[in-house]
Design brief:
127 residues, elongated, 72% helix, 5 helices, mainly alpha
Amino acid sequence: MNDHDPLDRDRTVTETTPAPDTTMPMVVYALHLAGIITGGLTSLVGVVIAYVYRGKGPQWLDEHYRYQIRTFWIGLVYFAVSGLLTLVLIGFLTWLAAVVWLVIRCVKGFKGLQEQRAPDDVDTWLV
């Protein structure tokens, strides 16, 4: 008679399975943040990396890539609208709000990576 719990084997497998490499998602978040200084050039590189690595990891990691891709495209809209609004001087305030939005999303993403879970509210246009 086998006294072993069948879940013990599953626990052993998950305990010995190495954690997925989160280096590339961290790099993409850093590139998004650097985009504030580079005028979005590094964010463009970051979104290309996110598209390339999407679908190659566990579900929670793929959600980070999806979050990063959405951050790029939504940020592009926010910064483009801010650029247009600078003609009426309110664009400087909306640009500052877009920078704060970007920083908060990247910090939330970094936190989720450290906890090895998907970011909260991936589909939101807000933070």
